[in-house]
Specification:
The protein is α/β, with parallel strands linked by helices. Helix content is 38%, strand content 20%. It has a single domain, classed as Ribosomal Protein S5, domain 2. It has 4 helices and 5 strands, in the order E-H-E-E-E-H-E-H-H. The chain has a 5-stranded mixed beta sheet with strand order 1-4-5-3-2, with helices on both faces. One of its GO terms (biological process) is tRNA 5'-leader removal. It holds the Pfam family Ribonuclease_P.
Amino acid sequence: MTPPEAPAQTDAGPRAASSCAPGTPVRLAMLRRRSDFLAAARADKHGTSAMLVQARPRGDGDSSVRVGFTCSKKVGNAVARNRAKRRLREAARLVLPALARPGWDYVLIGRREATAARPFEALKDDLAHAVRRLHARG
């Protein structure tokens, strides 16, 4: 028996992204392990003026969408890198749930000066364009 203040648990909870129909927005999980980033680096990639997007299907049967973010020291000091990653995270949060394919990993890599300086709507458009191009290839 659940306490009265606890919401009733259903099978379609917020983490039930694996049971979603195609085209249904999915919840994004974060890539954390270096090996996942290296596997994405060997996969297909598409560059835009503001970022480089790497994507690969995992093929492990898990239908979650995972995303990782990285910026090298070429982007600038820690403040500049963190700002660029924050902008990439927000763009991914807004764009990827509608365009990402279940069971895929995505890595967004910030570019020097462009990621932080590009208007946010253009940054989102760049991400959407890159994801569409990657899915069109394979």
